[in-house]
Every structure is written in structure tokens, then in C-alpha cells.
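Work through this:
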Amino acid sequence: MTTLTRAPEAVASPPPAPDPPRRGRWVTIALFLLPAVVLFLLLVVTPLLVAAYSSLFKWNGFGGLPTDFIGLDNFTRLFTSDIFAEDLWHLLVLIALTLLVQLPFALAIAMLLNQRIRGRAVYRLVFFAPYVLSEVITGVLFSLILSPDAGMANELLSVFGWESEWLADPDTVLPSLFLVMTWKYFGFHMMIYLAGRQNIPNELVEAAQIDGAPGWKTFRYITLPLLGPTIRISVFLSVIYSIQLFDLVWILTGGGPSHSSETLAVTMMEWGFKRTQVGYASAISVAMFVLSLVFALVYQRYVMRRDLEGATTSMGGRR
């Protein structure tokens, strides 16, 4: 005897929720963006406009708004100043040393700590720890270590019969400053490279090794090209930081001796707060902003173009 069973009735799915009105969506977006926009206008746009306005006046920063309008005289004075030319030269030297020494060193340490070695987590922590310290603490620490009189560096080197003036000698102040910068920031770039290396599929490296490629060729033709976007971001951050370098120089040397370690930010601080020539200091700040902006636009246009296009394509595909 055949028993007939009745098929269960299909459960009707609830109708899709209606899309919110277009005006309501724009109101929601505006409410979420409003705090960020207000902060951006107050903390970024407003200081830029005030600095640009002040740079057109001869002003000591006191007595209300500036009134002694001098046009572009502050910029003319700046661009014809020997100190400004020296600041640009110091900037180029620090950028060159960073690109040729600090970043390759950080990359080498990152590749080493990507290997299976005992205690690599401890090594990563130790190398990254200096970046956590503030610039003020780092400056005070190394001003004691590099003191030409009783510093630990000279105490150790005296064993080999060699001493240095470090930060007190115009010939050694920039290398000494770069040494401190490397100690402070190479751990940050090391972690960036390490994160980029760990995003590379191990199958590609293993396939190259199976094909008989030695370690150097594997790094040259597999790892390094795939680390390209990470390296380009690291270079970008390093150059922007060098343009805005202030804290370490101000604590370690104050720009001395004889302006031999002065940067644009230190010069701006010197003229704005010590000599109370706020109009001229504002012109220096505008020059720093324009320099950073031009570099950022050119770098993104010609160096990071493929990276940005790839990110845009990926986001479009996810949508």
C-alpha cells in the first residue's frame, strides 16, 4: 500500500526592506562625516590659512592681527638666505643617508627575522622598542650617550684609542644625528617590511627554490618585486618625516653648532619663537608645506601610480 505524503507548503520569504530615502542616506553620511570635517578644518585648514596670511606681513606675533603688509618680501628673504640653502642641503643629506643606509638595513633585519630562528619574537620586540619611545626621551638619552666629555660612546671608544666630538663638531653632527634617527626609526620600517614579506605566498618562494634558484636570486626576482609597494610606502614616509624633522634636532643640538644641523622646522622655531619674527617663520612653514605637498603629488603620480591603481581596482571588484 502506497502512502501519499503532502509536500510542505513553501514558506514565503519576507519582502525585502525598502531602501531608505535618498535624502535620509545623505543626512546619515553627513552626520558621520561632520566631526571629522570639523576637526580637519580646525586643525589643518585653519592653521594653513593663518600661516599663509601671516607670511605676507611683518609681524612679531603680539598686539592682535598683523597690519604691516609687506607682500612676498618674507619669501624673497627666505629664498635668498644662506641658512635656508643650508637647511635644504641638510635635508638632502639626511634623505640620501636614509634611503641608502637606514631602509636597506631595516629590510635586511626584516628578512632575517622572517626566518625560523629561536627567539625571533624577542628580537622583533627589541628592535621595535625604540620607536615606541618619544623623541624627547630619545634626544635626552643620546645627548648623554654622545656627550664629548663623559658620554658612554667616548668611554667605550677610548679603549681603542679613538674619541669623537659627535654632536659638538660640525663635521660629525649630521652623521651622529642620522645614527640616532636610525636607532629610533629603523624598527618601524622593519615591521612594515616584515608585514609585507609575510603577505607574500610561501609557495612562490618554495617554487623558486625547487627550480634551483639560490637564496639571493629568490630574493632578487621574487621577494623584492613583491615588496615593491611596501618599500615605496616606506620611502614616502621617510622623506616626509625628514622634511618635517624637528624634535630630535631641537633636543640634541638645537640646530648647532653654527647651524650645521639645522632643519627647516628648527629654523622656523628659531625665528618665530626666539626672535619673534612670526611673519618670517610663517613663510618658512608655508615653504615646508609646499615642499611636502609637491613631493607627495609627484611621488604618488609617478612612483606609486600602479599601487594606487591596483588598490582602486581591488576596491571596485569587491563592490
About this structure: Confidence is low (pLDDT under 50) at residues 312-319. The CA atoms of residues 93 and 174 lie 8 Å apart.
